[in-house]
Amino acid sequence: MLKLDGVSKNFGGLPALSEVSFTVPQGQLTALIGPNGAGKSTLINCITGVLQPTRGAIRFRDEEIAGLPPHTISRRGVARTFQNLKIFPRLTVLDNVLTGLTNEGGSSMLMAMLRLPYLRHRERRLKLRALEALDRFQLADKANWPAGVLAYGDKKRVELARATVGNPQLLLLDEPVAGLNAEESFAVGEQLKLLRSSGHTMLLVEHDMDLVMQLADRVVVLDSGKCIAVGTPDEVRRNPLVLEAYLGRMDATA
User: Fold this and answer.
1) DSSP string spanning 83-115?
2) What confidence tens digit (pLDDT) does each residue in 92-148 have?
3) Do residues 230 and 22 make contact, with C-beta atoms less than 8 angstroms apart?
4) CB under 8 Å to 251, separation ≥6 — which residues?
5) Which of 138, 137, 155 is nearest to 146 (CA)?
6) Are both 1-78 and 84-168 of the same fold?
């Protein structure tokens, strides 16, 4: 589904990513872990076109996407959530999720002004899909609330609903349970299990190691912008480089 080959990204001559290579198999959940500052979010931004890699290739379904603008990559079937919330606080919860269907809403202003019957039918169909997505994340009863008044955990679920409403071929999740309590994290984890079992392909960036070990089919480990390990959760858990660079630091801090 996704293949990265020698992806590097420099900022002012300083490397944030250095020769990162790995694949994301179709229908699996691949976790991307590493210490703070390892380059995880930078890599997600390169995949989605927010940043342009300095070197290397990024192929999605055998097509090169490195250097393409974000909206083009999105139209090819890549969706994401953000480490820091990116919602529209003054829009309703429903309208926030509907923005995830922008690629299917049409682009003709004239048709929108004429309000032809087929357009009204399409809008109704998209609204029903958005409501279904909200229902999956137990937010349907808050569809008409301004998104800005929601609790933090609910805002996280709005982002997940928006990212999944268009049935993307590849879903990139940047710390979806960051800032959530144990109950909220468990609920999100259960929803990710359902998405994986239904065949969704996901790349998950997460610091919650319990969640990663429960969900991931494969784990990729970054440290200082370099890929230091790729394997199953058990293989990565026992890798001495990972223990030193990431898990060991966590134990030492604890």
Assistant:
1) SS----TTSBHHHHHHGGGGGGS---HHHHHHT
2) 999 999 998 876 655 555 655 666 666 677 788 889 999 999 998 889 999 999 999
3) yes
4) none
5) 155
6) yes
Domain boundaries, the chain: 1-78, 84-168
Give the pLDDT band (50/70/90) at residue 252: very low
Helical ranges in the chain per DSSP H: 40-47, 70-75, 93-98, 109-114, 117-136, 152-164, 182-197, 209-215, 233-238, 240-242, 248-253
Closest CA to 172 of 182, 159, 185, 186: 159
Spatial distance between the Cα atoms of 110 and 20, rounded to a whole number of angstroms: 46
CATH 3.40.50.300 fits 84-168, yes or no: yes
Burial level of 182, CB count in 10 A (0-12/13-18/19+)?
Answer: exposed
Cα–Cα nearest to 174, from 153, 220, 205: 205
- Token pair in block for residue 106: 């049409």
CATH match of 1-78 with 2.60.120.380: no
Report which DSSP code applies to 39: S
